[in-house]
Q: What sequence folds into this?
């Protein structure tokens, strides 16, 4: 198995920037070389200067040491500059690529990746890789080079003591390998537990009003405390493992220095080496100590980054659940009439062979008609309408628009003629104007106002001092649920789509407001094929066709009048919700 396979995949990021990275490593090698020349001058200062009584040699050696130290520092500073650019450049590239990858995901992909988990991958995981890229540029070549060259110098000056040097390197390598294997699993577990913490935070902060309304603070505190404790334990484990590394290094090098003094002292007494060489040897050991100490925190960072890179790779390698067919054609909005046909359609969220959420759905919506779906929660209403713009692909059967299978047209062109107001009315930070014109930023202002009037939103928007330039808070938190729904409907109708889907999008407005919205839409979108998902029967009374759903199947169909005559279930829903009141009386 290749070493660090996930991080190695990231090498493509640096294509075109190798010159900078190579230059940085030249700085690394030059800085290390000048640092390693200092012990040579120390040996010369002692042997040829101090012990020989040569003051001129002492001065020359001292000046050389200062020069080498300045050069080593300068080259190290240059490398730090490049390392910072490499680390931040890596993070910038990954954030962009991963974000754009998530934008390609279909609803099916997003069902499997909670928002909290995606945020962790785009923030914490990329931060881990950022730090690893920075450290790798600074130290990964520096430390081995220092060790190797120090070994050469030791062999040249004290060949009889090289075995101590080799022993240190071998024992340390074994230690690092054992700890690395343990750390990789622990870091992966830590990131998974961080996902859980972020998912709970996302839920609780988004639903904090619900938590307070139901006095569930103690329960949510306990729930967060549980995942937070799991994350604490998962975070402490690699710290405990890594805690063995530095003391072990000091122990190894402490024993090694004792061996150097012991055996080196015997060599000095025997006259085979000089005192200066022993001092230089101990300085090389100090350099080794420094490099191994650096590796003791660089290596865990690289291992953590490998785990994070694996999580990003899994995300990037996930193909969109819905893909355009090779040679998919583009729909011409001007030529689309809006005839939608379902031909024996079935769908399972688990794919072919899984439990079907909707089954054997067949109907035709002619251009300009309104088709409504009515049924209990979980009966498959939203699932059916989500199949039209290919948020999901059918498991069996087919859906056509003007006789063309929707799987044979590009998703982008399909969604330019099919607009939807989703169940959850999500608004974006910005202005009201920008939110309504979200589907077409070049939409004329009068069309924006017209869409707001159709959605019965112009009244409350005009009452705000800043009018259509009023700021919208994140997720529209500064508007009520009904106001958010009306702005969402305005966004859907503003482009005047050929097919419009209203997925329970008036559930937060009163019946009178709903009637005004539907009346205005019938005028503005007279030729638009409209699909309405509703829990409330008042929403569907004027639809051309009402499809009554139960457990994912159509159990009856017809207009309001026809269903009142032939469907006991429909009459039961009508009586339970409206008590026999007519739609005209409601309006």
A:
């Amino acid at each position: 198995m290749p070493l660090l396979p996930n991080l190695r995949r990231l090498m493509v990021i640096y294509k075109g920037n190798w010159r900078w990275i190579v230059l940085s490593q030249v700085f690394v090698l030059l800085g290390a070389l000048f640092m390693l020349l200092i012990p040579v001058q120390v040996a010369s200062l002692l042997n040829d200067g101090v012990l020989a009584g040569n003051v001129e040699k002492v001065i020359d050696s001292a000046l050389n040491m200062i020069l080498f130290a300045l050069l080593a520092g300068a080259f190290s500073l240059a490398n730090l500059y490049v390392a910072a650019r490499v680390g931040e450049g890596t993070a910038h590239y990954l954030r962009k690529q991963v974000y754009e990858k998530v934008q390609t995901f279909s609803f099916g992909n997003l069902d499997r990746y909670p928002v909290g988990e995606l945020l962790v991958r785009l923030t914490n995981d990329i931060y881990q890789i950022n730090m690893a890229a920075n450290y790798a540029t600074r130290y990964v070549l520096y430390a081995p080079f220092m060790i190797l060259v120090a070994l050469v110098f030791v062999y040249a000056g004290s060949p009889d003591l090289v075995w101590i040097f080799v022993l240190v390197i071998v024992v340390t390598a074994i230690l690092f390998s054992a700890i690395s294997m343990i750390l990789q699993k622990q870091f992966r577990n830590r990131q998974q537990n961080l996902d859980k913490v972020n998912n709970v935070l996302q839920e609780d902060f988004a639903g904090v009003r619900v938590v307070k309304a139901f006095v569930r603070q103690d329960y949510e505190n306990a729930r967060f405390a549980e995942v937070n404790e799991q994350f604490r334990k998962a975070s402490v484990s690699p710290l405990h493992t890594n805690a063995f590394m530095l003391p072990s290094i000091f122990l190894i090098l402490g024993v090694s220095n004792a061996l150097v003094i012991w055996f080196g002292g015997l060599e000095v007494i025997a006259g085979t080496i000089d005192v200066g060489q022993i001092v230089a040897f101990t300085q090389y050991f100090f350099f080794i100590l420094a490099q191994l100490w650096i590796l003791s925190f660089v290596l865990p960072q690289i291992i953590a980054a490998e785990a994070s890179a694996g999580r990003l790779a899994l995300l990037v390698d996930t193909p969109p659940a819905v893909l355009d067919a090779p040679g998919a054609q583009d729909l011409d909005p001007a030529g689309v009439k809006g005839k939608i046909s379902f031909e024996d359609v079935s769908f399972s969220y688990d794919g072919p062979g899984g439990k079907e959420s909707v089954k054997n759905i067949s109907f035709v919506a002619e251009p300009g008609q309104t088709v409504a779906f009515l049924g209990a929660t979980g009966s498959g209403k939203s699932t059916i309408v989500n199949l039209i713009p290919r948020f999901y692909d059918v498991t069996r059967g087919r859906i056509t628009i003007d006789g063309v299978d929707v799987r044979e047209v590009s998703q982008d062109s399909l969604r330019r003629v099919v607009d939807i107001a989703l169940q959850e009315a999500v608004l974006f930070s910005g202005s009201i104007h920008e939110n309504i014109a979200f589907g077409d930023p070049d939409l004329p202002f009068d069309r924006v106002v017209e869409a707001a009037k159709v959605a019965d939103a112009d009244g409350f928007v005009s009452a705000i001092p800043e009018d259509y330039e009023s700021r919208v808070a994140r997720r529209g938190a500064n508007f009520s649920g009904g106001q958010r729904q009306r702005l969402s409907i305005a966004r859907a109708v503003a482009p005047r789509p050929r097919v419009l889907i209203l997925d329970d999008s008036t559930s937060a407005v009163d019946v009178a407001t709903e009637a005004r919205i539907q009346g205005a839409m019938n005028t503005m979108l007279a030729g638009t094929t409209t699909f309405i998902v509703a829990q409330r029967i008042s929403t569907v009374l004027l639809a051309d066709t009402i499809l009554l759903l139960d457990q994912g199947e159509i159990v009856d169909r017809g207009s309001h009048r026809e269903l009142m005559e032939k469907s006991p279930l429909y009459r039961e829903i009508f009586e339970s919700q409206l008590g026999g009141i007519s739609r005209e009386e409601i309006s």
Q: What stands out?
A: The first helix runs from residue 5 to 9. The first strand starts at residue 340 and ends at 347. The CA atoms of residues 9 and 359 lie 43 Å apart.
